[in-house]
Specification:
61% helix; 0% strand; disordered C terminus; DNA-binding; flat; homodimer; 5 helices; mainly alpha
DNA sequence: GCTTGACTTAGAGCGCGCTCAAAGCCGTAG
DNA sequence: CTACGGCTTTGAGCGCGCTCTAAGTCAAGC
């Protein structure tokens, strides 16, 4: 598989695939006799795993640590597991934060919904609700 | 309240507070007679709201749009509501992605746990499980 | 009076994760 | 044979969100 094909199948650009190889996130790919990368389809699983790490907010430098351990073989199993478990905890924390923010956002949106219905027909905005008409922000 | 106090209470640095004012995320703060910013405590609510938008991944340029609308007064209520509702949908989508990634991560971690227990005592790794010993990544 | 430290400004610099540019090579279609 | 597209490399550039520097002002404490 050439880099253009892998780009299509992985959803990453060829630029990004080369960049990932350069920094060590992807293994050095075999080159054909004209020097072009020739990928094995199995690389897609690794890329998919990287994508999940990225989605969950892992910085590239940590992915590199993982990739390096993986390259170092079986004796790094425990270390790799530990890295993933730590990451998982961070993800869970972040997820909880996000959910709290989402609930807050829902409240605010509910306020906008209510305010809209009474627009120009009721001046008494509910003071115990989420307010949002403050002094010149961004002015 | 001076900028140092607000920094402590908001969790943002004084540098960041000034930066936010410069770009228009925070309203231009009143200055005392020696030119120093003197904040009203109510600014904390706005900062908290910004923090939630940021946590949920809203780029600064969109927060600026919101801040501008808020500054423009009541006639932007509908627009502001729409912006927040769109944002909420993106957050929900992202949340679902994250949860899927987390489940995947849990599986992988479970694999590491199992592999550890049988380490050097069982060569037959479960092929139908999450594998993780691939050709020289990062090498 | 003098030091200390928090504040002011405009603007430069940084870390991250790409993204693209330049110059050149290779192989296949017409 | 030639033109074309897709690949190669190294290294520069970019958008984001801060973060810090430099040079200077001001107010309070010793």
């Amino acid at each position: 598989m050439k880099i253009g094909d892998l780009a299509k199948r992985s959803g990453l650009s060829a630029h990004t695939l080369r960049y990932y190889e350069r920094i060590g996130l992807l293994p050095y790919a075999d080159r054909d006799r004209s020097g072009q990368r020739d990928y094995d389809a199995s690389i897609l699983e690794w890329i998919e795993f990287l994508r999940r790490l990225k989605t969950t907010g892992m910085p590239i430098r940590d992915m590199l640590r993982y990739a390096q351990m993986r390259a170092d073989g079986d004796e790094t199993f425990a270390e790799r597991g530990a890295l993933l478990r730590e990451h998982r905890e961070r993800v869970r924390t972040h997820l909880a934060d996000l959910e709290a923010c989402l609930r807050s956002l829902d409240k605010k949106i509910a306020f906008y919904g209510k305010a809209k219905q009474r627009k120009d027909a009721d001046d008494g905005l509910p003071k115990n609700d989420d307010e949002d008409t403050a002094p010149r922000p961004g002015a």
